[in-house]
Design brief:
Shape: globular
Strand order of the largest sheet: 2-6-4-5
Distance between the termini: 40 Å
Largest sheet: 4 strands, antiparallel
Radius of gyration: 19 Å
Oligomer: single chain
Helix content: 40-55%
Mean pLDDT: 90
Number of helices: 8
Structural class: alpha+beta
Strand content: 15-25%
Number of strands: 10
Order of helices and strands: HHEEEEEHEEHHHEHHEE
Length: 217
DNA sequence: ACATTAAGTGATT
DNA sequence: AATCACTTAATGT
């Protein structure tokens, strides 16, 4: 956790300056706290109290949902330029988080304290638009997830998953275990192993230990 | 050298 | 598509 330096401001400016009006931009630089997390760290867990909202500068976050029995399912990914809009409403009401956010890779972000979120909603048009926009994108992501859960077979979901992963990691070489994919898609490792083998036979991917190389999906 | 963890596979439901 | 049971291979200590 640190104050925002000139270098970080430049990074932030690159992805967010066209979104926010100048006075708001300056206020974010003044008030925001810069922070980062390594791969596989929790940004937020289910039940955590929300005190900050992250504006993502770099990296990617996986948003998961878990039921009472511990069944996990991947909802969507967040990346650079995104924020976790779902958490805004939670923030304002000081409710606990419904989701879990885990970093997919080293991730940098600027934290905005809860009290400012509400204040800016009143004072800045660009902030209102940003929040609504972000909320809208998350809703679309969720709709897509429901769609694939309902209509797609597991092999098609796996292909979608790999595509999303490649996009988010900015790499065709994914360092991920079959077990982790199985957990994300809420199925068993054996099934994933078999489907991956099938994709390999079709020359769409290449398999290694904890590595999948996507060649031509 | 031994234990642990990831991945491959046939058979069964 | 899930589970079991077992094997093989890679990696850590």
């Amino acid at each position: 956790m640190a104050k925002i330096t000139k270098t970080i401001e430049a990074k932030f400016s690159k992805y967010f300056s066209h979104i926010f009006e100048k006075t708001l931009f300056e206020e974010i630089i003044d008030i925001g706290i810069y922070s980062s997390l390594n791969k596989d760290e929790y940004l937020i867990d289910i039940g955590d109290k929300l005190t900050y909202i992250p504006l993502i500068l770099k990296g990617a976050i996986k948003i998961m949902r878990e039921d009472e029995k511990g069944n996990e399912i991947l909802l969507y990914f967040l990346e650079r330029g995104d924020t976790c809009a779902i958490s805004f409403v939670n923030c304002i009401n000081v409710k606990k988080s419904l989701f879990r956010g885990v970093t997919e890779r080293h991730t940098e972000f600027i934290l905005i304290p809860v009290n400012k979120i509400e204040e800016w909603l009143v004072n800045y048009k660009s902030w209102r638009e940003f929040i609504i926009d972000s909320y809208h994108s998350r809703l679309i992501e969720l709709a897509k997830t429901i769609e694939s859960l309902t209509f797609l077979k597991l092999d098609e979901r796996l292909v979608q998953y790999l595509e999303a992963k490649v996009k988010i990691m900015h790499s065709k070489s994914l360092n991920i275990s079959h077990q982790e994919i199985a957990t994300d898609l809420h199925t068993s490792r054996v099934v994933i192993s078999r489907l991956l083998k099938a994709l390999e036979k079709m020359h769409k991917i290449e398999l290694g230990r904890e590595n999948i190389r996507v060649t031509n999906l």
